[in-house]
Amino acid sequence: MYMYQGHIHCSHRLLHLTFTRPLAFSSTHPSELLVLPISMQRLAYSPAIRALSSSSSLRTASSLQRFVAAAPLQATTTRLLPSRRPSSRSFTTTPTIMSSTVAGGANALLDLIKNRRSHYALNKDLTISPERVQEIVKEALQHVPSSFNSQSNRVVVLFGAEHDKFWDITTEVLKGMVPEDKWEATAGRMAMFKGGAGTILFFEDVTVVEGMQAKFALYADRFPVWATQSTGMLQHTLWVALEAEGLGANLQHYNPIVDAKVADEWKLPATWKLNAQLVFGGKSAEAGEKAFGPIEEKLKVFGA
Ligand SMILES: Cc1cc2nc3c(=O)[nH]c(=O)nc-3n(C[C@H](O)[C@H](O)[C@H](O)COP(=O)(O)O)c2cc1C
Questions:
Q1: Percent of all residues in the chain with a pLDDT value above 90, rounded to a whole number
Q2: Could you give the angle at which helices 130-143 and 223-244 cross, rounded to 10 degrees?
Q3: Its Gene Ontology biological processes (predicted)?
Q4: Is cis: bond before 269, omega within 30 of 0?
Q5: Residue 118 alpha carbon to ligand 1 centre in Å
Q6: Listed residue (64, 34, 38) closest to 49, CA to CA
Q7: Could you tell me which residues come within 8 angstroms of residue 287 by beta carbon, excluding any fewer than 6 positions away?
């Protein structure tokens, strides 16, 4: 068990927290300090913070959140390694900045990935600002990889009335396609999605894909596949990120039936091909149970 007391320097690839007020807490692994998730909500669930909550005067999530909210935040992109093992049980620490690997450094990311679920019961209570959502989208859109760094991903974010409009358009299109006896279920689903606070539309720019095909003829048949893989990476990143900020989301695919109307409504380039829609909002209910097949059937490892 490590004991920390004094000023704590926590870091994350995207966020650097500098707590200038003294605090004390215990942790079984010092690297937990370095991988605290960004949002207050997630902070409350971090093992290090849980330990902190129970071992210091910050005994409740809300007092912890007040404490963290009052702490000065400072953005940085540095990676930090675990602080050195303390020589005494009580000390002031600042972790060492290094560029080598960190065993356990992926755990916070894996926790965020495990925490992401399909949330269908959503409401319009956007618990973070639209600006914050946009910030997350921008970061993900810029940093998620694409083949040959072709940057084929395009995104439209719809909030409020614009989100409602998307689901009205989808409802109208489906009304002309779904048999009368099936309409009630479809209408219920549309109302459910419209009940969310926003929708992220994921596109790929076909001119980028075609440009890559022309430039690298050898891989011509691969570029559309790689563009789809890249949008999948972006979708997952944003899904995980929104959940990490306390929102719920679910992924839908009403393309291609709505593509023309969407392009017309939001004056989008005809070359933007719609791939998916991520509906997001406040969570009205927890996600349902999820079953997992045996990992042994999914993974083979050699040479370890
Ligand atoms: C590529 C992909 C396509 C999906 N398409 C839909 C969809 O069209 N409609 C839907 O309700 N859920 C869709 N989902 C959500 C999955 O059904 C869901 O992720 C899966 O059942 C696991 O549940 P979880 O998201 O709660 O972990 C899709 C998920 C993926 C990864």
A1: 66
A2: 150
A3: cellular response to oxidative stress
A4: no
A5: 7
A6: 64
A7: 117, 118, 119, 248
Q: For the chain, which domains are there?
A: 2-115 (no CATH), 122-283 (3.40.109.10)
The length of the chain, given as a count of residues: 304
d(CA 231, CA 295): 26
| Sheet order of strands, 2-11 included | 2-11, 16-27, 73-74
Contact call for residues 201 and 158 (beta carbons, < 8 A): yes
The β-bridge relationship of strands 122-123 and 153-159 is: unpaired
Residue in the structure block whose two tokens are 């991903």: 153
Q: Which residues line ligand 1 (CB under 6 A)?
A: 117-118, 250-253, 287, 290
pLDDT of 30 higher than 60: no
pTM for the model stands at 0.72
Tokens representing residue 281 in the block: 């909002």
Ligand 1, atom 19, lies closest to the CA of 118
- CA–centroid distance, 81 to ligand 1, in Å, is 36
Residue with tokens 């963290």: 68
Is 168 in contact with 142 (CB distance < 8 Å)?
A: no
Ligand 1 centroid to 13 CA: how many Å?
28
Query: For the chain, what is the radius of gyration of the CA atoms?
Result: 23
Could you give the CA distance from residue 109 to residue 78 in angstroms, rounded to a whole number?
Answer: 16
Interval 175-229: pLDDT, tens: 999 999 999 999 999 999 999 999 999 999 999 999 999 999 999 999 999 999 9
* Model pLDDT, residue 116: 98
CA atoms within 13 Å, Cβ hemisphere of 38? 20
Q: What is the mean pLDDT of the chain?
A: 78
